[in-house]
């Protein structure tokens, strides 16, 4: 069995966790396929005689790879998706970051995560992606986002104006610091911090959430994910910022942008006893009395 490992950065304080992961996989006879920069950063942590290969491209993840395990926070998992793409390889996240909405296993649950990965007895959540379309797409062969696609101002002193159409019909012109289009997965991220509602992961919807809107009667809007959104952005300067999850580029004013539902999903692995509502209660501390 081959399992891929993705890490974004190496922290010496996490070396015991990473070593435990490598040893547990090796003891179970797993062939390791590790993203090359992380392989070099953690080379001293591999057990003797471990079978380890490296990868640098999405094409190197094949049907032989039963799952990909990420070690880090949600940002690490989001970056790993640029390698997973539409391969249908399940992604199992071990959280060594802070909140960990997407990474379903804690660092104390490494042996459980390894056993579930080997036995493939995890539960799969199929998560919808957003797709970006535009001329000269700066995100090249992976113009997709799991959490959100965000348009926001580049200059700290002025707002931008985002003209939005829904299936070709004018929806609104947003005077704001920016605009977030979030998936159900992304509804607990940036959109939530800007006042957007939380959507269930299986909800067939997207969110449009303004960032610091000039008009106070403008509120987040829930739309069906079958709609296509088009954007025309006005700025006083020359450029604005466009972000797909953690990837950002600067674009010239009046760039034409289309956002729609992607034709494939991402498979997130989680424990069967960790449904979304339980994650919400634990991560957001719902029902907890914090006054003491």
Total of helices? 6
N-C termini distance: 49 Å
Radius of gyration: 20 Å
Number of domains: 2
- CATH topology-level fold name of the largest domain: Rossmann fold
> Structural class, judged by helices and strands?
alpha/beta
**CATH architectural designation of the largest domain:** 3-Layer(aba) Sandwich
Q: What string gives the helices and strands in order?
A: EHEHEEHEEHEEEEEEHEEEEEEH
Total beta-strand segments = 18
Question: What is the top-level CATH class of the largest domain?
Answer: Alpha Beta
Mean pLDDT over the full residue set:
93
Low-confidence stretches: none
| Sheet with the most strands, sense and barrel status | 12 strands, mixed
As a percent range, the share of helical residues equals: 10-25%
Proportion of residues in β-strands: 35-45%
Q: What is the CATH superfamily label of the largest domain?
A: Probable inorganic polyphosphate/atp-NAD kinase, domain 1
């Amino acid at each position: 069995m081959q399992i891929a490992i993705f890490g974004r950065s190496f922290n010496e304080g996490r070396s015991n966790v990473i070593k435990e992961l490598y040893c547990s996989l090796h003891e179970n006879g797993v062939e390791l396929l590790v993203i090359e920069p992380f392989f070099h950063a953690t080379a001293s942590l591999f057990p003797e005689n471990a079978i380890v290969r490296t990868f640098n491209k999405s094409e190197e993840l094949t049907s032989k790879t039963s799952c990909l395990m990420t070690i880090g926070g949600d940002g690490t998992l989001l970056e790993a998706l640029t390698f997973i793409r539409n391969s249908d390889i399940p992604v199992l996240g071990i959280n060594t970051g802070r909140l960990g909405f997407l990474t379903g296993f804690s660092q104390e649950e490494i042996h459980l995560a390894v056993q579930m990965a080997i036995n493939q007895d995890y539960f799969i959540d199929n998560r919808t992606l957003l797709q970006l379309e535009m001329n000269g797409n700066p995100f090249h062969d992976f113009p997709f986002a799991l959490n959100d696609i965000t348009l926001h101002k580049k200059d700290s002193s002025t707002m931008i104006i985002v003209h939005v159409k829904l299936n070709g019909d004018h929806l609104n012109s947003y005077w704001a610091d920016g605009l977030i289009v979030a998936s159900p997965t992304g509804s607990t991220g940036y959109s939530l911090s800007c006042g957007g509602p939380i959507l269930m992961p299986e909800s067939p919807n997207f969110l449009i959430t303004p960032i610091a809107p000039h008009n106070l009667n403008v509120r987040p809007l829930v739309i069906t994910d079958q709609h296509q959104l088009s954007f025309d952005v006005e700025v006083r300067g020359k450029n604005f910022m466009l972000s797909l999850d953690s990837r950002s580029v600067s674009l010239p004013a009046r760039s034409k942008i289309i956002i729609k539902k992607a034709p494939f999903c991402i498979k997130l692995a989680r424990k069967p006893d960790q449904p979304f509502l339980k994650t919400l209660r634990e991560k957001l501390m719902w029902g907890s009395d914090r006054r003491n």
